[in-house]
Amino acid sequence: MGRVSRFIELEREVESEYQPRMAEALQSKVDALADSLRGQTPACPQCGQPMKPHDTATVHWLARCGRLRAAVARYRCRTCQRECRPLLDLLGVEPGRIGGSLARLLALLGVVAPYTQAAQLAWQLLGFKISPMGLWKVVQRLGESATRYSEAVSQYHADSRSEDTPVRAAPPVVVLSVDGSMLGMQVRKQRRRRKDNQPLPPLPPVEEGQFQEVKTGVLLLPSQRVETSPGRHSVVRRFLVSCLGNADDIFRHLYAQLRGLGWLDTAHTVVVIVGDGAEWIWNRTAMFVHRCEILDFWHALEHAWEFARACYGEGSQQADRWVQQIAEDLRAGKVEEVIARLQRMRPGTPELREKLEGLIGYYTHNVTRMHYDQYLRLGYGIGSGAVESAHKQVVHARFRQAGMRWSEAGARRLLALRLLWLNDNWALLDRLAMVSVG
């Protein structure tokens, strides 16, 4: 085995030499900022009265280049008893905790990898030793900030009194796909506690019903879907929306995202909704004045396959040919002909007749959403592959690894951070203050 390359040794020497200098330079800037605040009396944010000096204490916090300190003055309002520490508020740090860009980088590792692996990556990539629980706490505090911000944005855009985002450049068509995915939840009401030096007690089994649905939506423009190979398309740009909530919550967040992007001109923009046939999707599309509802093509074929397997046998060539013909007719816009052909069939058993009636009812109920020839000609797309892929990236890749179970608060916070990362909006965290969580 060879020795470490000379260049790597030089890199490490330079890092060891200059990191203390960086810490000294940053400390001097913190001291200069503290000096500039001396003699300034803050006003109470609640009552507006001048606050009185209460005490001064030296506090420390952790940054990327090391431990920093400052003499921090605390002020108190005698009227409403509110307290503030202007220097810490201005710096956006908390005593004894990790702050600044270091906290954001650690949270990013926790968003991408399980906390144990993320703590190992923190040492390998940043040279910073932290326990998985310490990294978890950073994710919780920043995740709570991101969750509150997302909720505030949704409430703002849901209020008719809010100022509209400029929509002069709103696209004529926006495609929206939405679906749900189940997430295993914790059944314990309190965190496990280690007694003495004994290992943690095992987690209780996940019983039936201890799951909660994560709903995810994808917003994209038809012009951003390009053909990468014959018959295969890829999305160049998309925006993901996800929440651990009910159908109203996901559509509220989707509406807010459309408004925030300036993609929704209610007078002109057509919102194309692609769904798998679930009624909770269609029941909420009325919020968009101009809309086009599309039943996912592959879900439509799944129902045909279910009947074909029962009628012609699993894996039979006759079933393949039968479904292939239905697929060609549906893609050509002949949904009425398909329904008429199904109605002429006479299955020999009650079970087959029941399955056929179900297939006919499903197509009849969604007939206005199955004009696939028109959708393809307009460039809308006919499949929900974008939202299926989004589920894998948002939920499956991080939340559904072996043995993972989540508290509701922990899942919401990590979900908010993961959306920032996947939507290429991680820089937003630089403008959000870390908050304390219970």
Structure description:
This protein is of the alpha+beta class. Among the domains are: 8-136, no CATH class; 298-369, no CATH class. It is 46% helix and 16% strand. The protein has 14 helices and ten strands. It has helices spanning 6-37, 86-91, 100-112, 115-126, 132-158, 247-261, 279-282, 297-312, 317-331, 335-343, 350-365, 372-378, 385-399, 408-422; strands spanning 52-63, 66-76, 83-84, 173-184, 211-220, 225-229, 232-235, 239-243, 270-275, 291-295. It has a five-stranded mixed sheet with strand order 8-5-4-9-10, with helices on both faces. It has a three-stranded antiparallel sheet with strand order 1-2-3, with helices on both faces. Strand 2 (66-76) and strand 3 (83-84) form a beta hairpin. Helix 5 crosses helix 14 and helix 10 (335-343) packs antiparallel against helix 11. The longest helix has 32 residues, at 6-37. The two termini are 50 Å apart. The model has no long low-confidence stretch (mean pLDDT 90).
